[in-house]
Amino acid sequence: MVKKRSFQGDLDLLSPVNLFQMIGLAYLSGQLVVRGPENTAYFIFTKGKLNYAFSLEGRKKIGQILLDSQLITVDQLKACLVDQKKMEKWKKLGSIVVEKGYMKHSEIIDFFQTQIKDVVFEALTWTEGNFTFVDTSPLTDEDIVLEENIDSLILQGLVFFDDVSFDLSRE
Questions:
Q1: Where do the domains of the chain lie?
Q2: Which of 10, 46, 49, 116 has its CA 20 to 30 A from that of 139?
Q3: Which one, of 9, 118, 13, lies nearest residue 59 by Cα?
Q4: Per residue in 81-96, is it b (16+ CB within 10 Å) or e — as a string?
């Protein structure tokens, strides 16, 4: 039996920026759960690269987000959901949308990159809460995953916050 290794702590001791950098620099693989004051975020890493992220608060299902973004139609979503129910082995909706040709693989990747940035940027603002990292990954071969450099995302987030602060100070 393989023993799962983990570590946990408080965000007031180890900030999200430092936590993300540590995972990246140590090339860790696994799942990071960060619980902030009003939300919980999940991050999946492989060898220090961020593969996927989502948060619980305000989380919509991917089908609804694709509809809201007008990337697919209601009929296309219904067709994908029907196919999903008929499959012997369950597949994620994003993969079905791409297989059916409703979206290109690159378009769904862009969509997930935006989703990941939003979750990372939100978590960067948390100063209270706790985290748990476990060296296991819930990803499957069928998942559409990214390999985001966490340092680049941190830098983008800090620039974003700096720009917002600058704009607010001018008002």
A1: 6-169
A2: 10
A3: 118
A4: eeeeeeeeeeeebbbb
